[in-house]
Amino acid sequence: MVPEKQRPVVDIAAEGMADEIQRQPQERAGAGSFMDYAMPRAGVLPFFATDISRVTSSTHPLGFRGGGEGGITPSLGVIVNAIVDALAEFGVTHVEMPATAEKVWRAMRAGRAAGAGGIEAR
Questions:
Q1: Domain housing 111
Q2: Is 27 left (phi over 0), alpha (psi -120 to 50) or beta?
Q3: Would you say the pTM of this structure is higher than 0.85?
């Protein structure tokens, strides 16, 4: 297990599927504490393994590479594309982040109602 490589993936999974600022009528953020905030927990994520590739950079004089961004860079695209791929049979072609359960459900219903004609969920 490589926690320093897994944490960015988990953070981005939360951003891609749940992290949304809810505004109240008084223009205050709706999450008053961490109890109201969409924080990723191990029980809601599948197991995944990470690996460290020890390849030096050809563009840095000492061969250094960035340390913590490897999990962040591709994760959002992977998550949203996987959701859109899973909803293709419903005619969904785009889901706006965060792809909350409600947005996915609405996209599925809109796709069914439109007869799989290419729905974008916002």
A1: 3-60+73-121
A2: left
A3: no
